[in-house]
Amino acid sequence: MHTNYYFLRQLAPALTQQLAGYRVVACFSQEKDELVLGLTNGTAEFWLKAQLSATFTALALPETFHRARANSVDLLPDLLGQQLRDVTAAPHDRVLQLRFESGATLLLKLYSSRPNAVFRLRPEGPAELFHQRYTTDADLQPVFTAAADQPAGPAATAPHPLKRYPALADLPARYLRAHGYDQATAAQQEQLVQQVLRQLENPPAFYLTTLEGRTRLSLLPIGEMERELPAADPIAALRAFVPLALSRRAHELELRQLRQTLERRAEEASTSASMARRRLYALEHTVGYRQTADLIMAHLSQIPAGASSVDVVDFYQDNQPRTIKLKPSETPQRTAQNLYRKAKNQQLETRQLSERAERREAEAFWCLERLEELPLLPPDLKTLRAWRKQHQLEPETKAKAATELPFKVFEDSGFTILVGRNAQNNDLLTQRYAHKDDLWLHAKDVSGSHVVIRHRAGQPVPEPVVERAAQLAAWYSRRQNDSLCPVTVTPKKFVRKPKGALPGQVLVEREKVVLVVPLNPFERNGG
Question: Which positions fall inside the NFACT RNA-binding domain (predicted)?
């Protein structure tokens, strides 16, 4: 109820008593959806910060405030120097009005869906809007009368007691229903509503309470009570409630994001391990290249020149007959030689698949262990951030990095991965942005994006990060649709561009090759 009419009617006279005669000396914004007013009477200062966001609308009254040196924008220049006369609450609405001695007004519209601030230098003058997209707010008129006790307009004649007082909102309605409102007769309902109205107009206390997981400021004792605050000081009540609510909202948001990150990583690692296991099974349960090459070499005398196939007895498969296809344009010996080379690569692939499956299964298990730890952490933002840092689960900064760098940007376990967008962009990435100790990756023997993993001092790049970067290099290459792709991995210091080379062309002096499935591991659809 921190923006509810019944709280604002308590807050308005308290602000008038505190601030009458104060002048506005600062009006600015340094965060999105934030309007900050600084007032002083020459000896004392008072800060008012309106959070005009649809996700959380609030009026914060910090005891001190330090304006940032950067990203701070002055607003409403005509408001500076204005001397406050009084603060009033609009009748049965979530609007607080600051009226100044000159006749200027500032309306703080504290709606949860379309909050705004409306400034008028003169009552009949044009309106200046904080959120200019809400153009209809320019029609909001200053409030010149004191808040009435009874509703006006269509609500005043509504037959249902609750509908006659729409400003009651959700907490009083919940309180009434918890006290038998739905089962009561019409006369009893009217009596219950009037009793609640008297409590709201003269609350015995303000309550910090939790209801359905949300921290609320209430004028009625409802939910899980955490703290009772004196009704004589609504300013202190706001100062206690808003920082607590913001901290808990930040904790809930970061906890949810952290859980989603771990669930996504566990799912990706499990899927990758499963794919590796399936491929490994297929390799181990099909006739290998080496067996075929051995059979060709064992039956050379039976293969005529230019043959397109040969029927042999397969001594690897219980002497079963088998037909081996051949290329008429090459000798059987050359065919066998090519098969032996493929067998060597297949052996390398088998080893890498086995290692990848074990590594990704371990990663999935690690993520599941962290997910089990999350509910056991104290519900404290500082503790959560320390735990997140301990496990290198810092939030991704992809959006920020993307605005700073002209490449595709990905964040993985604290490491930044940059992906070139075209041949010229590849040159820019490799020649100008990459450091000699960065890891450089590229799909082998085909055109594709240069990929760079930014070096972090004293921290070797973990194998899972290298693998995911290699998958990106494969995905953004001509091998995107292959089942497996070899990817070159080397420190950037071993990559050089020869004189006269075309855009994107480089020479690699030392390399390690990894085999990966081409995909974008940072998107669920692999796009």
Answer: 411-500
